[in-house]
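Homework help board

Subject: predicted structure for assignment chain

Our instructor gave us this sequence and asked us to write out the predicted structure in token form, then describe one feature. I got the tokens but I'm not sure how to describe them. Can anyone check?
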Amino acid sequence: METSSRKQSSFQALSSAIPEADRLTGTWARAQGAVLPLPEAAERAKPSIHPTAIVAKGAELGDGVVIGPFAYVGPRVVLGEGTRVGLHAIIEGCTTIGPRCQIHHGAVIGNIPQDLKFRGTPTHVRIGHDTTVREYATIHAATTDTEATIVGDNVLLMAYTHVAHNCRLGNEVILANAVNLAGHVRVDDYAIIGGMTPVHQFVMIGCHAFVGGASRVPQDVPPYVKAAGNPLRACGLNSVGMERRGISAEVRLELKRAYRILYRSQLNVGQALDRISRDLKPYPEVHEFVEFVRGSERGIVR
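My token output:
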């Protein structure tokens, strides 16, 4: 009877905590059709910390920050205005997160890198504004104190993604579920990587590129290019993505010509880049395409 009573008491405590957590962060389940009113401006003015959360002395919380149940925020963490941290999330190290970000439950940000060169010095993670980090995603700090792992603005990291030390993600990047970035990977603005995709260390993925799910990425993917498969192969331009982002038909056509010269002619890479620079219209997008390929150290996907 005593054990049963204890279980019932625990259940009641949990039942009362979950609606409170839902009110604070909006990331937990609720009855179908239930509508929770947004907090008034006066409520948003000061941080809201759940009683079970731990916020270390020294942490800086902006106006309207919400910390959910059982979350941990370390002493050198800075959270921007309106950022919400879900239950059981851990944010530690020298981590700065911009305004209006959503950190969902179980995410871990700012932990030490999985790099044998790491010597224990405080290193950094910097995340821009309006970025969403979904359940159980991990973002590791850089290896040395002069470096940072950087995630840009309006980025979506879906569940179980991993961003390793010294990675640099641009703005509007999307990593689907269980994408794994090794150290020093660079992903430029508007790039999308499909789920279950590992990316080799030091690889660069250009702006507006699209990598299909369950691919393995051992080499650089040029801007605007679609790539998929295992082994990875280039398979045209991300025309749909470019159109959605407002890139004009004229520019898309010139990029298509550049792609054909690089991938469909019998020229080697150096010759193809010279021909593109000489014969095609000098749109900034074409220049970016050429300079990315020219600067590739690992070689580009073919």
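Reply (TA_rk): Your tokens look well-formed. For the description, you could write something like this. Helices lie at 2-25, 41-44, 239-244, 249-264, 269-279, 284-294. That's the kind of observation they're looking for.
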